[in-house]
Amino acid sequence: MRTKLIDLHTGGSENIIDITAECRDFTSETGGDGLLHVFVPHATAGVAIMELGAGSDEDLLAALRDLLPADDRWRHRHGSPGHGRDHVMPAMIPPYATIPVISGRPELGTWQSIAIVDLNVDNPRRNVRLSFLTSPVDGAGW
Amino acid sequence: MRTKLIDLHTGGSENIIDITAECRDFTSETGGDGLLHVFVPHATAGVAIMELGAGSDEDLLAALRDLLPADDRWRHRHGSPGHGRDHVMPAMIPPYATIPVISGRPELGTWQSIAIVDLNVDNPRRNVRLSFLTSPVDGAGW
Amino acid sequence: MRTKLIDLHTGGSENIIDITAECRDFTSETGGDGLLHVFVPHATAGVAIMELGAGSDEDLLAALRDLLPADDRWRHRHGSPGHGRDHVMPAMIPPYATIPVISGRPELGTWQSIAIVDLNVDNPRRNVRLSFLTSPVDGAGW
Predict the structure, then answer these.
(1) Of A7, C9, C100, C121, which has the most beta carbons under 10 Å away?
(2) A with B: how many residue pairs have Cβ under 8 Å apart?
(3) What is the pLDDT of residues C73-115, one digit of tens each?
(4) The domain A2-136: what is its CATH number?
(5) What is the overall mean pLDDT for chain B?
């Protein structure tokens, strides 16, 4: 398994960050067939595979504001007001994703991108771990 | 890794399609231990592992109508009215799933099935990619 | 792939059970790099990677009571009142999770734990399957 950490600037507002290019670069360096694994080692971020850039990013953030409101209902009360919701989100938008890779290319659909969903406004930098499980016939990752 | 695309007819209404039999056939062809990966390369579909056929399929569609209403709140506005919700769903019901396989058999619980959840009424056909990562001792996929 | 079933006591109320220690023990026995796979072979339980012990466990259960109410809306009506919601939950909190492992250690973030989310009050015991896909260079799982 080949693995590396990348560093993201997620800024001081809730945000959805496209990491598709980083994922493509990572799997093309090795080539071969296998599984791409994306993981955020943070308790207030998730990974989503979705269309970006045509309104759905803002739609997702709006849906999350509706489903997990940033009010005072949460028991977890560190950080900014309503921050407790950020800690519930990863149960619903998990901090991992898996994507099949063929000949070094993630087999995403035309409209699919790989994105980090980060509601936390108190932490402007994030790590993401990319891992690629390839087959030994390729003489690559294993 | 062994991988193949299957073709599904999902029809012109929101739908939950059982693909458990296709998954079992696929892993039994290779045999051995490993991980089954299911992936839909579409931005408006997801994969769920759940009980089917005892009301829960309709319960899930009803819950999604409640949580992500098909009204005019969405920024993404191509296709049928309310279609923006279809693009938010994959953040919550992801387009992939992983299932452990032992001796060629997915180790599902008694009441678990593997299903494609497709809210999109504008696209009656879908591809699903099945991949099986097996160990080299089995002399199979690797 | 090395794999084993563990047995959990989830009790007679909705519950979130920390299995991080069991996961760490399991991957450290083998060592090496790879992917840890966690799977619950039950149709009313899910796996979440989240902060535990600072209020977020109770926050998640409260959010689920709000999003999937235990009332008579559900078609699936076996067991306790409102039990139909338990069967919808795994579509949103899936019964699997994947975590990268380096040198035998799950690469979780500081505040991340691995938890079983079980809403079902009628079934006090649960199995969880842990699987570890390691690379052949380690001479371990493969």
Answers:
(1) C100
(2) 98
(3) 999 887 777 889 999 999 999 999 999 999 999 999 999 999 9
(4) 2.60.120.460
(5) 91
Integer Cα distance of B26 and B45 in angstroms: 21
Instruction: Please report, in tens digits, the pLDDT of each residue of chain A (142 residues total).
Output: 999 999 998 888 889 999 999 999 999 998 999 999 999 999 999 999 999 998 999 999 999 999 999 999 999 887 777 889 999 999 999 999 999 999 999 999 999 999 999 988 778 889 999 999 986 544 333 3
C-alpha to C-alpha distance for C77 and B54, rounded to whole angstroms? 9
Phi-psi region of B118 (alpha: psi -120 to 50; beta: other; left: phi over 0): beta
Let me know if domain C2-54+90-138 sits in CATH 2.60.120.460.
yes
Contact criterion met (CB < 8 Å) for A137 and B133 = no
Tell me the chain B residues in contact with residue C43 when contact means C-beta distances shorter than 8 Å.
50-51, 56, 109, 111-112
A69: distance to nearest CA of chain B, Å? 13
CB-neighbour burial class of residue C46 (10 A; exposed 0-12, middle 13-18, buried 19+): buried
- Neighbour-count burial for B24-34, b at 16+ CB within 10 Å, e otherwise: bebbeebbbbb
CATH topology of domain B2-138: Jelly Rolls (2.60.120)
Domain boundaries, chain B: 2-138
Q: Do A87 and C51 touch (CB under 8 A)?
A: yes
- H or E stretch at C39: strand C34-39
Q: Do C67 and B62 touch (CB under 8 A)?
A: no
